[in-house]
Amino acid sequence: MSNTALPTAGNRTVGETLKQFAQPKMAMMLVLGFTAGLPFLLYFSTLSVWLKESGIEEALIGFFSWFGLAYSFKFVWAPLVDRFDPPGLAKLFGRRRAWIFVAQIGIALSMVGLGFSNPTSSLAVTALFSFLIAFSSATQDIGIDAWRIEAAANDDEQATLAAAYQYGYKVGMVISGGVALVIAGVASFPVAYWVMAATMGLAAFVFAIWDRRYGIHAAAAAGLILLTVGFASAFGSFAGVLEDGTIGHTLMVGISWLCYLVAAAAAVGFVIAATLALKSPPDGVEFSASSLFLGIGFAVGAFLVVAVIAALLGAGLPAAFGALGIELERSTVAQAAIYIAAAPIIACAIAIPFIRRLKPDAPQLRNPTMAPFLDFFWRHGWIALLILLFVSSYRLSDIVMGIMAKPAYTHMGYDAEAIGIVSGTYGPWIIFVGVAMAGFSAVKFGLRTSLIIGAIVSVLGNLTFAWLVNQPSSSLVPLFIAVTADNIAGGYAGTVFVAFMSTMVAKSFAGTQYAIFSSVYSLGPKLVAGTSGVMVQTFSGGVDAAATVEGYSKFFLFAAVLGVPAILLSWFAHKMKPDREAVLQNAPPPGVDTGTGSSSDAAERA
């Protein structure tokens, strides 16, 4: 028997590295990334253009963004996804794939329902299906994350799977944020959502058959379609920036069409492979039509149960507040959201003195559940509060501004098609310019300087929108300038900030403490961002006033001001260090599995 070791990350050749991306699971990860990215913009961002065109006020449009909090609270129902087998489907697909399939059915049904709603006459129904898209998508994320982690053979493969997932995710966002708006501009928003539902259904079909004899060929063809469509949209977007007739423009258009031709050929291969896959039974699994119908019935039933509960809560909560004599005015709701956003920071400030009094041998600091949370505050003391304020404020201006960006485009007079081309198709790809610049800056100037630059360019990116809304909509050039500036700034700031958060965690609790930072980074700003529509109307003359160009301009200036605290705190980021060593000296406490043990340890645990 040969004892030749498999090549490791350090000594792989280029060919061996590329083979990692040629594995069947990589094609499937592309598809799953696509199904995760597709609904992300449809529950609010793309919908906000429809709402604005339907005459819905900015305050209500802003409140719709709170449905995205489903992603922040998905840990509440994650244990159900982890431990419960969906009837029928678990027998056919296994638990992880079964839940992903259930969520995908829920997403598709939600998109169909949203297409049949009318924001002008039935805004509550539109809101219900918007929430269901977000809820189903968050549920899908739970299953995809678990499947990706379990599918990886080692830590190196986690990175390649994540890369495939991120690319698929980006293509999904281009389709839902760009192509969907173009379809809406050419046809209508209902048609756009129905096309997106059909696309999700097709992706769910690919995921369902990929383990059949020819299913992986269908998945590979679908992955190639996503890959080439992504490249085609990127090159097509860059062509839109260049002047017609130039060599650069002609080259970009030519490459774009070449990618579309490859995608068309892959589509033919997909149809053939999918047909053959349907004729062949899945390997190692006894296919049962009754199990499939039972599973689909469960998925539809679960969707209806969640829909009924959400509808009852949506109707019942305002009635309950009314019975208590509490009037839910827009300004009151906005104030409550800001108070809730500040509550976690206040709670931490109250808890820090008690946590700091704990002795190093305190059992709480070694408890598998409590230790990751207590360790951070025990080591940093009051500096922890400064870190949390920095984390919650660094991207605050971007998040608040972003909620009203597309309604502002519509208010200016840009139609859905123009917004889709510039913001939805061109915008996502230009982010990578900012990401690349951030990587170079961190290496060249260091993380502290890069954090300061990131905070400054975020403010400057927001200021371009205050300039944009005062420009005529007869030309796409101002829109291209604003979207380019904002996305480069966002890509830069987001990258250096992720690096900063990674340096703040203890290695023994990296996953949990990073999750805490992620929650603080997103939860508070998202709550505040939901009030952005109220801000626009307030700046336009009052909470109940119609939005004006002046109101939008003042709002974007205010959003830029929200980035000033991040600039100031960035100067002191290098001093945000703990004054105590971790009790466990970066060794995991008893009962905490870091996933870095030896293979024999893993086998023992299994």
From TrEMBL:
GO terms for molecular function: acetyl-CoA transmembrane transporter activity. InterPro entries: AcetylCoA_trans_1-like, AmpG_permease/AT-1, MFS_trans_sf. The keyword Transmembrane helix applies. The chain crosses the membrane at residues 27-47, 59-77, 98-116, 122-139, 167-186, 192-210, 222-242, 254-278, 290-316, 336-355, 376-396, 416-439, 451-470, 476-502, 514-535, 555-573. One of its GO terms (cellular component) is membrane. It comes from the Bacteria. It is a multi-pass membrane protein. Residues 595-606 have a biased composition (Polar residues). It is found in: Membrane. Its main location: membrane. Keywords: Membrane, Transmembrane, Transmembrane helix, Transport. Residues 583-606 are annotated as: Disordered. GO terms for biological process: acetyl-CoA transmembrane transport. PANTHER family: MAJOR FACILITATOR SUPERFAMILY DOMAIN-CONTAINING PROTEIN 3, SOLUTE CARRIER FAMILY 33 ACETYL-COA TRANSPORTER -RELATED. This is MFS transporter. It comes from Henriciella algicola. The lineage of its organism: Bacteria, Pseudomonadati, Pseudomonadota, Alphaproteobacteria, Hyphomonadales.
